[in-house]
Amino acid sequence: CKMKILSNIVVLVLFLSCSFNKEQIEMVYIEGGSFQMGSEDVEADDDEVPVHEVQIKNFYIGKYEITQAQWKNIMGKNPSYFRGDDFPVECVSWEDVQRFIKRLNAKTGKHYRLPTEAEWEYAAKGGNLSKNYKYSGSDTLQEIAWYIENSDSLSHICGNKQPNELGIHDMCGNVHEWCSNRYDSLSYTGNILKNQSILVEYVFRGGSWLSKKKYCRISNRNHCLKNIRHFSLGFRLAEDSHE
């Protein structure tokens, strides 16, 4: 009888441990600093210039993109087109992500959020450890990203490619990643962008499994409406540092 009770306790502990671990988000500490945001590369688009200095405070960012298992644990359902617990969640809108974050924070007592696009670019460039790569972690895209030439037209398990200087994976491939900023806000240069959209659009960064090389560059910017869902669009989380 005692053995049965002990066995049941062990099972319960293991169950609670597994349930708890599913919602743990592995974060990387990013030491703040200044960096040159944008690009004057021949491939750069008009919204990547002018290159300008940005100051970044200490913060944390997800080592990996949010997985489908993590999403399901909080939201109960998996919206993704390509299925697999360790694959990045996709087909989630900016609004969907805000609901996920609200529930996740309520459940964990944390204060997760989306990264600003400046934080995203700083982290992708390697922060204070930057080696000035064209892509996040290498000048050879094949080493660090799933993109149109090697993805077989689908997403892949998070973290299977080489990380960048800070140990962060998949910032230039696998799925695009939502940021917190409105595209027509003052978040990029401090000046209102030309040809602003009347509709509210939000920034997403990073290449994806269907991106050509040009669109996997660290400085490349993308944007769409906050209610849009796409099978190449996911996210990773950030969190403030109080140090």
Number of DSSP helices? 5
Q: Provide mean pLDDT, rounded.
A: 89
Task: Give the biggest sheet.
Answer: 4 strands, antiparallel
Measure the end-to-end span: 51 Å
CA gyration radius, whole angstroms: 19 Å
Percent helix: 10-25%
In terms of DSSP E residues, the strand content is: 15-25%
Strand order across the largest sheet: 1-4-10-5
Give the SSE order as H and E letters: HEEEEHHEHHEEEEE
User: Which segments are poorly predicted (pLDDT under 50) over 5 or more consecutive residues?
Assistant: 2-21
The backbone outline, from C-alpha atoms, is globular
Strands, count? 10
Coarse structural class:
alpha+beta
Describe the structure.
With 243 residues, this protein is of the alpha+beta class. It contains 5 helices and 10 strands, in the order αββββααβααβββββ. The protein has helices at residues 2-22, 68-75, 94-108, 117-124, 141-144; strands at residues 27-30, 33-37, 52-56, 59-62, 112-113, 176-182, 201-205, 221-225, 233-234, 238-240. It has a 4-stranded antiparallel β-sheet. Strands 8-7-6-9 form a 4-stranded mixed β-sheet, covered by helices on one side. The protein has a two-stranded antiparallel ribbon with strand order 2-3. The termini are far apart.
Architecture blueprint of SSEs:
Blueprint: H1 2-22, E1 27-30, E2 33-37, E3 52-56, E4 59-62, H2 68-75, H3 94-108, E5 112-113, H4 117-124, H5 141-144, E6 176-182, E7 201-205, E8 221-225, E9 233-234, E10 238-240
Parallel strand pairs: 6-9
Antiparallel strand pairs: 1-4, 2-3, 4-10, 5-10, 6-7, 7-8
